[in-house]
Amino acid sequence: xxxxxxxxxxxxxxxxxxxxxxxxxxxxxxxxxxxxxxxxxxxxxxxxxxxxxxxxxxxxxxxxxxxxxxxxxxxxxxxxxxxxxxxxxxxxxxxxxxxxxxxxxxxxxxxxxxxxxxxxxxxxxxxxxxxxxxxxxxxxxxxxxxxxxxxxxxxxxxxxxxxxxxxxxxxxxxxxxxxxxxxxxxxxxxxxxxxxxxxxxxxxxxxxxxxxxxxxxxxxxxxxxxxxxxxxxxxxxxxxxxxxxxxxxxxxxxxxxxxxxxxxxxxxxxxxxxxxxxxxxxxxxxxxxxxxxxxxxxxxxxxxxxxxxxxxxxxxxxxxxxxxxxxxxxxxxxxxxxxxxxxxxxxxxxxxxxxxxxxxxxxxxxxxxxxxxxxxx
Length: 377
Fold this sequence. Notes:
Blueprint (H helix, E strand, L loop, with lengths): L1 H31 L5 H16 L7 H37 L9 H26 L2 E7 L12 E5 L13 H10 L4 E5 L13 H9 L7 E4 L9 H10 L2 E3 L3 E5 L3 E5 L17 H6 L7 E4 L15 E4 L23 E3 L7 E4 L16 E7 L1
Parallel strand pairs: 1-12, 2-3, 3-4, 4-5, 7-8, 8-9, 9-11
Antiparallel strand pairs: 2-12, 6-7, 10-11
Helix pairs in contact: 1-3, 1-4, 3-4
């Protein structure tokens, strides 16, 4: 029932926001073209809105490839157009109340407000696309309470590649080079390597070769994110195998006899993992028989409270740090930690939530960064 309510709320918001955007754009267009037919305009707007939604449909690969770019960019505009139009309307209302603007508002003001909003939104999109092509390095030094880890260890961490969507594939050579420059002992890929459909990757063979070129002393490990499933799940599993990536599905690996690395199955896959379900943490730990430090890869940080003091380091992704302002300011109320480093107390596990190394939806970042994380233990 809660999920149904959430879906209905989102659909209602999308409909209302699109109606508002369409109305405000129409007010501006009507000034320039007073003879435009309102119904014809409505049909055209609805067509483009539905066309953009089809980009996220879980079927018809060819159709998705055609409309995905349009849908992703429209979603970026959709973030800012309602906010900026609302801000413009509030300013015009204040201007009318203070009589700076006449009560009988000239149509030209509506036109100029619409043009300014669209111009600012376009500038934000251009800036966002530039930011989405950049990759930062973020480092953390972690002192583990378990002293069994002699000699230190370097973990390179990435998440949310979203291959097949936005900049994931375009930035991949730069990402791999950035990882190799760090000379890590382990590489941890913390979910959402794909974007629901492996067929959206333009050149899978090239991507496999890039993954094989990662240089890490003890190998590359991954866990599943909520977008790493769907109709092509089994093809994704083959892709991991052929790319020399060890996928840990509620399983663990012993790293050089010094560290236990656990990978969790995501609890809420969008389109399923072909019947694979997330195991309870007690079942996962029953297979771990070691006094070594324990590091966990788990895609979604909403599960932080699942882990007790027996764990040393938890690695999460998923949030993208909101990806685009002002969404990044909304996440703090949803998660114990939505980004960066967190530790509840000195006995609790260290927690790192990365903003991800790519984007989902709009191929843009505003107020956030793509990042590769290096953890020195």
